[in-house]
Design goal:
Distance between the termini of chain A: 33 Å
CATH topology of the largest domain in chain A: Rossmann fold
Helix content of chain B: 40-55%
Largest sheet of chain B: 6 strands, mixed
Mean pLDDT of chain A: 93
Structural class of chain B: alpha/beta
Order of helices and strands of chain A: EHEHEHHEHHEHEHHEHEHEHEHEEHEEHH
CATH architecture of the largest domain in chain A: 3-Layer(aba) Sandwich
Oligomer: heterodimer
Radius of gyration of chain A: 21 Å
Number of strands of chain A: 14
CATH architecture of one domain in chain B: 3-Layer(aba) Sandwich
Shape of chain B: globular
Number of strands of chain B: 14
Largest interface: A-B, 68 and 65 residues
CATH superfamily of the largest domain in chain A: Nitrogenase molybdenum iron protein domain
């Protein structure tokens, strides 16, 4: 039935996505809702909570204020409660409750901005959409903040990129982002910054120094397009992993075939593999597997939004959890690769689990197998075919 | 903002009885949670649980249930934006209820809604009436609506009503009583069971111990509800009104005078031959014996303990601990007296509301203390030894005191991962 989850948990919501991008940037994140809303973020969608200073708060919205209007209350709570002096920004996010009462976050940020030298802004979230939609708005908002904070110095002359999109919700840990970074740097590409993990406000301010943005999650595309249009920074899509890392870095060096590396190899007509996950990671893994075995018929499917221009034949977005069961029964793949919770829906189809934090939260976030970079071992997948 | 104990009554008066300021942001780390409504509701055996929610409301409870292995009975109907305007989710709910009842062998169904249906005024009562008639299955309404937290209708209170609403037919079993309000059953070594048995009460029921729905329904036949923890009080009152099941206040406490009072209340039920005197003397002797270990030691009492904050704080003070701080969520009615006594002894004791935004900065400046009580103390302070008192263990009576003293005596120097400690506790905010 449409909208009914019997086997899967609700996925990470949009405000978890936004929080994930801004978490390490030294600002205050205010989630306007009842305390239960923020519990999703702090307890279940943010693996860095105990490893990084956190300055994230709930507005503690109560019924009375929900009925009488909460804008003045929210503003005064923020003015009175933030004791940290060296904040880089304040961002206000909405929840289902604030969406229902139509809280005017724009007005609150306008009032809070007066007399402050730091950006105070809101990213439109409702708790009704999934994380990737919130992330998309957040990357866009952060890209626009580059206007507020101009670059600290001129663009560098060496080959450098910003990794954009490596949030824990898609890449769950510093190690995975570290593998991406290592993979680029060992090929002589300097990583100027990483939006989403291992990041700071200062490095965001230096983003315009990079010659290129490497987009590793589809949710970052909106921000990347803004930066391309307004700052002339081109972007390339793909996650360096296994042998695909080489093809991707060739494209970054401008030595590619002319078409995006992430679309270079077309699936074959042999054994069918289904990759379930974040679109750019899945598409990158498809390329890496095709480099090993060009006959494989690999489909990238997802419960999350996909960028149409990166879809290949057979790629699709699933709407309901029943859709996955129907899909595997119809398509009869040799192997399904995705978050271990999806195994509940794939009947007896052979399955290889790779966690996706936006799906399974902290159930698997402690595992340390690399699924990015040169360290990703495809043999574990290939030997199941 | 911390409040000195001497100023606490005035502060509570000005803040509508709430410890967490109504005028401040709330800091909500993973250590600040509790069992959550899901874990409590799913204790009712053989019922299916359906949450009608926006995606942002159900994730924590769902993942916690997966970690607990109870998720097979918990389901989520996701609301879309258009539902908020059109109210279409009521029709979808009907369809989802039908599907779940048809596919499972549910004996009952709990239907949870959230803050937004409170605000929308959605008619779920009418829907439940209709579906009960159509499907011939009992359905109980639950609310996961934290906009009402820290009020008399807070979700952690009302979830007990949600569970016990299934009790309908009242039978008569003189030899059975219920334990209500405690999330987990009282530990089986408590003298409470010996005491009750000495008066002919051989069956002590707790919903967490019921193996099937019929057994759960038999709680309606019990002679009396024993209210162990305050969040069950409203459910006790409602059961008395709805099905005539009386209740007795028998609060879990570490204070001997309150334990005595509880057993006196219980004695009104009949003749109980069990003499608690010997055990009381054993507890008092154990308190004397442990003082060299506790006197003058610094301690912090956290909020994440299965005890009433000020009741336990007074007990720790009497043990000789030099309490540095108490983190708490509220001062409940039945701990007012303990709070007042402690206030005369330690007017300078700082009380920290457990969601105080200043706690966000405390991790950077944590103080070292000899003992921390509650896992949240390990997040905000550096306790040399940690005593957890988890929600899964409900201590009661003089044996509860002895168990706590043993936990203090045997506490090892804490050197583990705070992160693992918190995540393994599987708490929900």
């Amino acid at each position: 039935m449409k909208g009914l989850l019997k086997k899967l948990p609700p996925f990470a919501p949009d405000y978890s996505g936004v929080s994930s991008l801004f978490y390490t940037l030294g600002g205050a994140i205010i989630i306007n809702g009842a305390d239960g809303c923020i519990g999703n973020v702090t307890g279940y969608d943010e693996p860095r909570f105990f490893d990084h200073d956190s300055y994230i708060f709930s507005s503690g919205l109560k019924e009375t204020h929900a009925i009488t209007g909460d804008e003045d209350v929210l503003r005064s709570k923020i003015e009175d409660s933030l004791e940290k002096e060296d904040l880089n920004f304040i961002v206000i996010l909405g929840t289902p409750t604030s969406a229902v009462i139509a809280s005017d976050h724009e007005s609150v940020t306008t009032l809070l901005s007066r007399g402050r030298e730091i950006p105070v802004f809101t990213v439109n979230t409702t708790g009704i959409d999934c994380y990737e939609k919130g992330l998309s708005r957040a990357f866009d908002a952060l890209a626009r903040k580059a206007d507020f904070y101009p670059p600290l110095s001129e663009p560098s002359e060496d080959l450098s990129v910003n990794i954009v999109g490596a949030t824990p919700l898609d890449f769950w840990g510093m190690e995975q982002a570290g593998e991406i970074r290592d993979s680029l740097e060992k090929r002589g590409i300097r990583v100027n910054g990483c939006w989403g993990m291992d990041n700071s406000w200062e490095s965001v301010r230096k983003s315009l120094q990079a010659q290129m943005n490497l987009i590793v999650a589809a949710s970052a595309l909106r921000g990347a397009r803004y930066m391309k249009k307004h700052h002339g920074i081109p972007f390339i899509c793909g996650v360096p992993l296994a042998r695909f890392a080489e093809a991707l870095t060739e494209e970054i060096r401008g030595k590619g075939s002319g078409q995006p590396a992430i679309m270079a190899l077309k699936p074959g007509r042999g054994q069918r593999l289904v990759l379930l996950g974040e679109q750019l990671w899945s598409c990158s893994l498809r390329q890496a597997l095709l480099l090993e075995n060009p006959d494989l018929d690999i489909r990238c499917i997802s419960f999350f939004k996909q960028e149409p221009s990166l879809k290949m034949e057979g790629d699709l977005v699933l709407q309901e959890e029943d859709d996955l069961t129907e899909y595997v029964n119809r398509e009869k793949p040799t192997l399904v690769i995705g978050d271990p919770l999806y195994r509940r829906l794939t009947c007896d189809t052979p399955f290889y689990g790779i966690p996706h934090l936006a799906v399974s939260s902290r159930l698997y976030w402690n595992h340390d197998t690399p699924y990015t970079g040169d360290a990703m071992d495809l043999n574990e997948i290939l030997k199941r075919l | 903002m911390q409040v000195l104990l001497e100023n606490l009554p005035q502060y509570l008066k000005e803040n509508k009885k709430r410890l967490n300021s109504k005028d401040a942001l709330h800091y909500c780390p993973p250590c600040g949670g509790g069992w959550g409504v899901v874990k409590t509701a799913v204790q009712v055996p053989e019922v299916q649980v359906l949450f009608v929610i926006p995606i942002g409301c159900g994730r924590h409870g769902a993942i916690a249930a997966m970690k607990d292995g109870t998720d097979s009975r918990i389901h989520y109907l996701l609301m879309e934006e258009v539902d908020l305007v059109s109210g279409d989710h009521l029709e979808k709910t009907e369809a989802a209820v039908r599907e779940l009842v048809e596919e499972t062998e549910a004996k009952g169904l709990i239907l949870f809604t959230t803050c937004i249906d409170d605000l929308l005024g959605s008619d779920f009562e009418g829907l439940i009436e209709k579906m009960e008639e159509e499907l011939q299955i009992p359905i109980s309404r639950g609310k996961m609506n934290p906009i009402l937290s820290e009020t008399p209708r807070a979700p952690d209170i009302m979830v007990h009503n949600t569970a016990y609403n299934f009790l309908r037919e009242r039978g008569q079993e003189e030899s059975a009583v219920n334990l209500v309000g405690c999330l987990s059953p009282v530990t089986s070594d408590s003298e409470l069971f010996d005491f009750l048995e000495s008066g002919g009460i051989r069956e002590v029921r707790h919903m967490g111990n019921c193996s099937n729905f019929d057994e759960f329904l038999s709680m309606a036949d019990s002679r009396v509800n024993l209210l162990i923890r305050a969040p069950g009080k409203r459910a006790c009152r409602d059961m008395e009104r709805a099905i005539g099941l009386p209740w007795i206040d028998l609060p879990a406490s570490f204070l001997p005078e309150k334990i005595d009072e509880g057993y006196k209340n219980l004695s009104l039920l009949g003749d109980f031959s069990y003499d608690t005197g010997a055990l009381k003397r054993e507890a008092e002797e154990a308190i004397r014996e442990i003082r060299p270990l506790t006197a003058g030691r610094t301690a912090v009492l956290g909020k994440t303990v299965n005890a009433d904050s000020f009741d336990l704080a007074l007990f720790l003070h009497r043990l000789g601990f030099q309490l540095k701080y108490v983190l708490a969520a509220a001062v409940k009615d039945h701990e007012q007296e303990a709070m007042e006594i402690l206030r005369t002894k330690r007017p300078d004791l700082p009380v920290i509301p457990h969601l105080d935004p200043a706690l966000a900065l405390r991790q950077e400046n944590s103080e070292e203390v000899d003992f921390g009580f509650g896992l949240d103390t390990a997040v905000y302070f550096r306790p040399r030894k940690l005593v957890l008192l988890p929600f899964e263990t409900s201590l009661f009576g003089y044996r509860g005191i002895l168990a706590l003293l043993e936990s203090i005596r045997s506490a090892e120097p804490f050197s583990g991962s705070v992160k693992d400690l918190v995540y393994n506790a599987n708490l929900v905010i």
